Amino acid sequence: MISGIIISKNSEGLIKRAINNLNFCDEIIVVDGNSIDNTVKIAKESGAKVLIFKEENFAQQRNLGIKNAKGEWVFYMDTDEEVSDKLRQSIMDVSNYNNSLSAYFIERENYYLGRHKWPKTEKLQRLFRKKDFIEWVGKLHETPKYKGETGLLDGYLLHFTHQDLTKMVNKTIIWSDIEAKLRFDAHHPKMTWWRFFRVMLTGFSKSYFSEKGFLAGTTGVVESMYQGFSMFITYAKLWELQNEK
Which backbone phi and psi does 170 adopt, to 5 degrees? Predict the structure, then answer.
């Protein structure tokens, strides 16, 4: 038995498609982050079991999902992701084998601004044997803890992130508060003028060079400059917190 878990918040335009995409799972659980739109209503109408989580903590949100899952295997997906046909078959095959592995990495292809494929993929841990799973840790950039060995599944998880510039900026405004507070609580060095240029350059360089954004043409330039802007907002809010103190 496979349990599919979807993490959502204010995703009324995406949640139905995400649930339908997991139709190969024996149960689908939506852990909603206290949405104020019709996400919960649509999720229930689409046949998913809905759990409400009111705190801004992705790790605890994911932990709530697996705690309520009934399947031997648990697969996680976000509302802006989609399982490819080959990955779907790989997940179904894993549940049919009596293997000794406890978790699987999945390769994810990222698409920016709706349709532009990013040159570099990434590997994420999204499929777990429930009995070997311990917990997710990390308030924002969560990491799984489990017992046992891992493998890699065939096929791709498709990620349609940053669908338009307005959503990109709104997301940055929301999550930069959490990012800044985490840095403040960790006693980050006092922000000075030159640190802003350094963090913005780091954000741009990582996206454009390390993640090969230069191969994506104009989309790569826009996305990489946005990453620099996102870093500026986060650290400007950190500066604000430090000055309030």
Answer: -60, -40
- Tens of pLDDT, residue by residue over 22-44, are 999 999 999 999 999 999 999 99
Per-residue CA distances from 8 to 11, 18, 68, 69, 204 (Å): 6, 10, 16, 16, 28
Geometric angle at alpha carbon 202, from 200 and 208, rounded to 5°:
100
Global pTM reads 0.90
The SS3 assignment for 33 reads: coil
| Inter-CA distances, 137 with 152, 191, 209, 224, 235, Å | 22, 28, 29, 28, 23
* HSE, side-chain direction, 13 A CA sphere, residue 18: 31
**pLDDT, tens digit (0-9, with 9 covering 90-100), for 54-89:** 887 889 999 999 999 999 999 999 999 999 999 999
User: Domains of the chain, with CATH numbers?
Assistant: 2-161 (3.90.550.10), 165-244 (no CATH)
Question: Is 176 in a helix, a strand, or coil?
Answer: helix
When computed from its CA atoms, the radius of gyration of the chain, rounded to whole angstroms, is 19
Q: Regarding beta strands 2-8 and 103-112, do their DSSP bridges make them parallel or antiparallel, or are they unpaired?
A: unpaired
